[in-house]
Specification:
Layout lengths: L2 H29 L10 H13 L8 H29 L10 H31 L7 H32 L11 H11 L6 H22 L7 H10 L33 H9 L5 H5 L1 H4 L6 H21 L4 H4 L3 H5 L2 H5 L6 H5 L6 H15 L6 H12 L30 E4 L2 H5 L1 H16 L4 E2 L10 H5 L3 H17 L4 E4 L2 H10 L8 E4 H10 L13 E4 L13 H8 L5 E2 L29 H10 L5 E4 L2 H13 L7 E4 H7 L4
Helix pairs in contact: 1-3, 1-7, 2-8, 3-4, 4-5, 5-6, 5-7, 8-9, 9-12, 24-25, 26-27
Length: 666
């Protein structure tokens, strides 16, 4: 064994020992979090990894930054062949991949091509950060230094790869071996060694050691860098919530008599996956860039929330593991000392942050868990919420209306309740806004009339219906939310309800995705889904008159991002003769929140500009005559936004059901 091999083995063992130590340390940190099963459905999880992690599907939503990252990511994946080859050569110097035959041709040509692409991508990434100064990439002086170190290390790794390949080729008098295809390396070899191989052997050893040291240095720098996501992102994507549970809040076991904490006051109250989110964060800023609160001057930054979780973990976890009571550290908590209450209450739970995150971090879950701590453990929340919670408790609605008046909207419409006759095809879940809000009662009546025209046999619960629990749950009052959900499920199951239609996306999301946690399993349709279905089946016939109206449609977050319903409302509008559907700049899965989700409907915006005004301005820029919506909260917020901009006389806000009813032959 040569001295080179002996030295390499010592360096190899030291490097991987340090990396292993740091990885095991983080795993110990994760184990301090709460248990959560994220090991089910491995096939679906692997599919998600292939799409999101390797296919870079979320990153490519931003074509420029996405392409840069795609090339760097895949460059490094493909460079693993040359890295592994160099590592094996450390144990056995003559090793090469040449024995793979034609596959070796692919390996060598890919190294040349992606080597150049990675260099260009890294240089452009530095240009975007320090010359263009893209705002979302601003992570302070320390973060910029860290990003520079990583990008420069990547460049040096690629340069050293070209160097060792060029020197190795010069050693062989510039003759490529069988199956070897290196057009760029061959040119570089001639340039560097001037057709003389006398110094090539020495330079090969220099570049080889440079390559090895840089690779070992890079991988051991990662655990101390925000770019630790290079290691943690793929596991984080694998453990992402999948299927029906993707955007569902976890159920707290409120009956656990041994439970000492509900919600999260500190990092150890979060699940291990939520702590892993902190270590997977790339600090790319896509979440904050998409956040409606951050966009309108609120204190909330989803990126900061996740980074704070990591920083608090790194601060407190070592003392917890060592069993040392550090009073200065333990007297602080994640909530209050790292994350302000105002940040948590600013969230609209619109899911834009989660949707945009390239490593599938679940920001909203952590925010709601911290809200739960404030409400359930500290009784510390904005004063307006006292009224909301009291109304829900006494009237089963966030508003101060008498629950006995819930079915008053249906007077004279010949609509039966389930109590009167449970024999029906569909239960029409009206919701609180649809029952009590004067404006949205018109939408409720429109939906009911459309079902009557289509001869749908439906019923309502009347005053037996209660708030679905969405508002209370997302405001952190899990106890109140669960009591409502359990009572509603008990009522629905007593009537053997199978199919539900609702005009409220918040009711829709709760009934469809969260009620199964409490034994409520139903087929749930949003009214825009039902309307399109009835038109396509010929049960609703539209007039042939040309309307000559310009309409722009505002996507509800709970309908769109939460449940992927984007096309059905638009398709119904497109079927109206003469109607011109104009899209806002931010639409569909890049749509902008109205500002009412997550209980924000009942809280005042005390910082920055109003979210609904921001969205209303965007709607007005389309030149539309009507802003179409499919959500009671969205309708209220858009109406108020347009009114505040003094455009309510020229631009109206209507629900899809109202627009379709107006054009339906009765």
């Amino acid at each position: 064994m040569e001295l080179k091999n002996i030295v390499f083995i010592i360096v190899f063992i030291a490097s991987f020992s340090l990396l292993t130590y740091n990885l095991l340390k983080v795993i110990k940190y994760l184990k301090l979090g709460q248990k959560e099963n994220r090991f089910d459905q491995p096939a679906e999880r692997i599919k998600n990894v292939l799409k999101v992690a390797f296919g870079q599907s979320k990153l490519l939503r931003d074509p420029i930054a996405g392409t840069i990252h795609f090339l760097i990511f895949w460059g490094f994946i493909l460079f693993l062949f040359v890295v592994v080859e160099s590592l094996i050569q450390g144990f056995y110097s003559p090793f090469t991949w040449q024995f793979l035959g034609p596959v070796y041709s692919i390996i060598t040509i890919v190294q040349d091509v992606f080597g150049v692409l990675v260099i260009v991508s890294c240089l452009y990434a530095l240009f975007r950060r320090f010359v263009q100064k893209v705002s979302r990439l601003d992570v302070g002086k320390e973060g910029n230094i860290d990003a520079s170190i990583i990008l420069i290390l990547i460049l040096l790794v690629v340069f050293s790869m070209f160097g060792l390949n060029s020197a190795h080729l010069a050693e062989r008098n510039f003759v490529l071996s069988n199956y070897e295809i290196r057009p760029l390396t061959k040119i570089l070899s001639y340039v560097l060694f001037s057709e003389s191989a006398t110094s090539a052997s020495l330079w090969y050893e220099i570049f080889w050691w440079m390559h090895i040291i840089l690779v070992f240095g890079f991988m051991n720098y990662l655990p101390y860098s925000k770019h630790f996501h290079v290691i943690t992102s793929i596991p984080n994507v694998y453990f992402n919530k999948i299927g029906r549970q993707k955007y569902v809040l976890k159920k707290l076991n409120l009956e656990d008599e041994n439970a000492e904490q509900f919600g999260a006051a500190d990092f150890e109250h979060l699940s291990w996956k939520q702590i892993l989110d902190g270590f997977a964060c790339t600090e790319c800023g896509r979440c904050t860039e998409a956040c409606p609160a951050a966009n309108t001057g609120k204190q909330l930054s989803p990126r900061k929330i996740i980074v704070d979780i990591r920083r608090r973990t790194e601060e407190k976890a070592p003392f917890m593991l060592a069993g040392i009571e550090n009073q200065e550290i333990f007297s602080k908590t994640l909530v209050h000392n790292y994350i302000k209450d105002e940040e948590l209450w600013a969230c609209t739970t619109c899911n834009a942050c989660v949707y945009e995150c390239p490593v599938t971090i679940e920001h909203v879950d952590s925010i709601v868990d911290m809200r739960r701590n404030l409400v359930l453990m500290e009784s510390n929340f904005p004063a307006e919420m006292n009224v909301v919670f009291k109304n829900i408790e006494t009237n089963y609605t966030p508003w101060a209306f008498n629950s006995q008046d819930r079915a008053n909207w249906a007077e004279g419409m010949d609509i039966k309740t389930m109590a009167e006759d449970p024999n029906c095809e569909i239960l029409f879940w009206v919701g609180c806004a649809g029952s009590f809000d004067a404006r949205y009662q018109k939408v409720t009546k429109s939906v009911a009339k459309l079902m009557q025209i289509a001869n749908i046999n439906f019923r309502i619960l009347g005053n037996e219906e209660k708030c679905n629990g969405d508002t209370a749950r997302r405001l952190g009052n899990e106890y109140l939310a669960q009591s409502l959900m359990q009572e509603n499920v008990e009522k629905l199951n007593s009537y053997n309800v199978k199919k539900i239609v609702t005009a409220c996306p918040h009711c829709y999301n709760s009934l469809k995705n969260e009620y199964p946690q409490f034994g409520g399993n139903y087929e749930v349709l949003h009214h825009t889904e039902l309307i399109l279905q009835l038109i396509e089946e010929g049960k609703l016939k539209l007039k042939s008159d040309q309307v000559k109206q310009k309409v722009t449609y505002h996507d509800s977050c709970y309908l769109g991002r939460y449940n992927n319903i984007y096309d059905q409302p638009r398709e119904s509008l497109k079927l109206i003769n003469g109607l011109d559907l104009i899209e806002m700049q931010r639409s569909k899965d890049k749509g902008f929140c109205c500002g009412a989700g997550g209980g924000r409907m009942f809280l005042e915006e005390k910082e920055g500009t109003r979210i609904n005004v921001n969205r209303a301005e965007e709607a007005l820029k389309t030149g539309a005559d009507i802003v179409a919506s499919a959500c009671p909260f969205c309708m209220t917020m858009m109406t108020d936004g347009i009114k505040s901009l003094e455009k309510s006389e020229s631009v109206g806000v209507k629900d899809i059901a109202e627009i379709i009813l107006q054009q339906t032959i009765q």
